[in-house]
Amino acid sequence: MLFTSQYAGRIGAFETFSPQSWFDGPVPFRLQRQLLTPAPGQSALVAIRLCEQVDRPGFVRIRATNHLSEVLADQLMPMHSGQSASAPVYVDETLTRTLFEVFDDQGALLHRDECSWLWQINVSMQIHERQVNIQDDLSRRAASQGLGPRASKVYSKSTYRNTIHSQSSSHATTYETHARQKAAIEVPPPSADRWFDRGIDNQLAVIEYLRHELNGSSIRRALIADPFFGADALSRLVLRLDDRSVHVTVVTSWGIWHPDTGERTGEADNRRRLELLLDQASSVINPALRVVNVLRGQEQAFHDRHIVVYPHDGAPRVHMLSNSINNLAVNWPLCIAQLEPDVAAKVTRYVEGLAAGFDCVMNVALDTNMEWGTRYAGI
Predict the structure, then answer these.
(1) What are the percentages of helix, strand and coil residues in the chain, rounded to 5?
(2) Quick one: average pLDDT of 108-127?
């Protein structure tokens, strides 16, 4: 958003101002703005109070506007000698900005003050806990091209969120909707879709992108559906996820075919191999992880690859991957596309069903032959 005209005095949600010249000397009076408890039938009541009684008559102007910059009240009221508070100004709806001006009895401006009322403050804190060095094929290939630290170092962290709300009202919701619409017009958001060419640099870029998407400051959990999620995907992605505050469920479908080599193997052998790898890596896996292997008989139960992320607020978002995680930008370029909300809702239902051992499209129960880790305990 361009910080010009009416936004010139704003940095994010904070106000900037220049102190009056007389701040360097004795202050003739100080102002206290008051947002009082509304009377019956009123939604807002604002008044101005002076810390000291005025020693001469004057005038006080109070102007209140809403989130659309519509004027709710604009009154000029006398202040008599010895008076310390102005008469209250009643407003019919929730105000978001106020202007106070004080004039002497000759009409000279003595003080001018503006204030915006905040509806909500989001606070996110991340605590870094440990560093893990991963030495695998990706790390070795990255090191040979001078990109070693990007591939090998994972800094574990825990994310804590808190939100401070003002008094809730329908006007707050209206204001937030208007602000988001205004921001989308002024600064259109970039596309949520991503394209990654082949090459080691893009392989690392994919991991960094997914690490950002699976961040505890923005989401609480994620579902990854990938029928070929194997040992390579485990080390390539999961071991490089750094947020311990996110729960990740991986739904895979190892059958009689090896997910990394494509060779025919025994279904029990594949299951035991996956469990062994998870047990060995459990001490360095940061997110709370659950891995489920589902089959239709001995055959693969699903085909497409999706990542469903659940924000702290709002509906789940769904990313569709052009190829499996065990080959992120290795043999082929990778495209990650975010689905539109109506389609995302259907895919979310489908992937949640797979995680529960049910194919809602075919309306059949699936065989869950392995479940490792802890189930998500939240909503």
Answers:
(1) 25, 35, 40
(2) 78
